[in-house]
Write a structure and sequence with these properties.
Blueprint (H helix, E strand, L loop, with lengths): L2 H25 L4 H9 L18 H14 L1 H20 L4 H13 L3 E4 L17 E3 L2 E12 L6 E7 L9 E7 L3 E7 L11 E11 L8 H42 L7 H31 L10 H29 L1 H4 L8 H9 L6 H14 L4
Parallel strand pairs: 1-4
Antiparallel strand pairs: 2-3, 3-7, 4-5, 6-7
Length: 385
């Protein structure tokens, strides 16, 4: 990632996302100011290949952008990550279609916001299973999905929806459908009043949409999930959590530095704790970028089969998500101990209340127990290390 791009992301975070982060959290609203800046910078289409007008940045670049935004506003970073996951699903699985070739050019021009509806009432959070089915008549489709969560749905121009391929299909035989705002209705069924990540506005809806069958991604969702959705989610989410952890570390470092100035020649009590916390932070960051590098290596092989039955990479992905979400809570907790009562106060510059509330959400977004349960099955089936 070149220095100019890094600085542009930092500037948006520092000058726009951070000053509005408290209000976004307090009001549980979409981070509109930050996204206006991201749109102006053409960052919503930065993963689109240059041949279609995008920047053609790498996956590792996207990972780094999520981390940087996480330093300033975890809500902005999370929505940016979720959007980029959907962009990647299209770019990696649908650019052989004239419809989606035209769509990504539209994405570049208009900087559309893309949401996702993968969860569904009655399936317990299993995104690889659907109850609803797409109905096709001639060249038209209709879809009705009861989704307990659709993040930033009202702010989305497009929502990618999972559904069974047809009414008689198995729950795991899914397709991925691009639904447009102008032909979609959203009927709210749940509110979003949570401890943290309030700015994702992950409200529940009954989604009804229609359109042309060209809007169904040509690849089966099973392939999209294995090659793109799951790796992108686990790694970019972990990266933004790393940014959030870095924010807590910055608060702790500033506090220790301030205390050191008060007692020249005497090391503040929190200095040792800061050094210990940095060891944990370095471990967290190294694990995330090792997974990003491995994912880039597998993508470079241009062979979708490298993701089929790849138990080693599947475990690496799961371990990254579980460990990053756990270490995030650990690091924010350490930072609070370093800053003491100042971190506990909502009216103090060293306050870490919002960071702590956001941190606990990381273990619940795709619950760690569900992931570890899947890992236990893979460990039994796996024969090599």
């Amino acid at each position: 990632m070149n220095d100019a791009l890094v600085e542009r992301v930092h500037r948006i975070g520092r000058e726009i996302a951070q000053p509005n982060a408290a209000a976004v959290d307090r009001d549980a609203r979409f981070p509109a100011e930050a996204f206006a800046a991201l749109k102006e910078a053409k960052f919503l289409s930065c993963y689109v290949p240059e041949a279609y007008g995008g920047m053609g940045v790498s996956f590792t670049d996207i990972t780094r952008m999520c981390e940087i935004l996480g330093l300033y506003c975890a809500n902005t970073a999370m929505v940016f990550s979720m959007h980029q996951i959907q962009v990647a699903c299209i770019c990696q699985h649908a650019l052989g279609s004239p419809y989606f070739q035209a769509f990504v050019r539209e994405l570049v021009e208009k900087q559309l916001v893309i949401g996702s509806a993968t969860t569904e009432a009655g399936i317990g959070g299993d995104v690889r299973s659907s109850r609803c089915a797409v109905e096709i008549q001639g060249d038209q489709f209709t879809i009705t999905k009861e989704a307990p969560v659709i993040s930033y749905a009202e702010a989305s121009d497009v929502i990618l929806v999972t559904a069974r391929r047809h009414a008689d299909a198995l729950p795991s035989d899914q397709v991925h459908i691009l639904t447009r705002k102008e032909t979609t209705t959203l009927t709210q069924t749940h509110t979003w009043d949570t401890l943290g990540f309030r700015g994702t506005v992950s409200t529940g809806y009954i989604l009804k949409s229609s359109g042309n069958v060209e809007q169904i991604l040509p690849a089966p969702y099973a392939a999209i999930h294995a090659r793109t959705m799951q790796p992108y989610s686990h790694i970019t989410w972990s990266a933004l959590w790393c940014g959030l952890a870095g924010d807590a570390m910055n608060h702790a470092r500033a506090f220790v530095r301030s205390e050191a100035r008060k007692t020249p020649g005497t090391l503040p009590p929190g200095a040792l704790r800061l050094a210990e916390a940095d060891v944990v932070f370095t471990t967290m960051k190294g694990t995330i970028y090792a997974a990003a590098a491995e994912y880039e290596r597998l993508l470079a092989q241009a062979d979708p089969k490298v993701f089929e039955g790849n138990f080693g990479f599947a475990l690496q992905l799961s371990n990254v998500k579980v460990s990053a979400s756990q270490l995030l809570v650990d690091i924010v907790g350490r930072a609070m101990m370093i800053c003491g009562i100042a971190a506990y106060r909502n009216d103090h510059p060293s306050s870490l209340g919002r960071q702590l509330r956001d941190a606990y959400g990381a273990m619940l977004m795709v619950n760690n127990d569900r992931i570890l349960g899947q890992c236990s099955t893979i460990q039994i089936a796996r024969r090599e290390f």
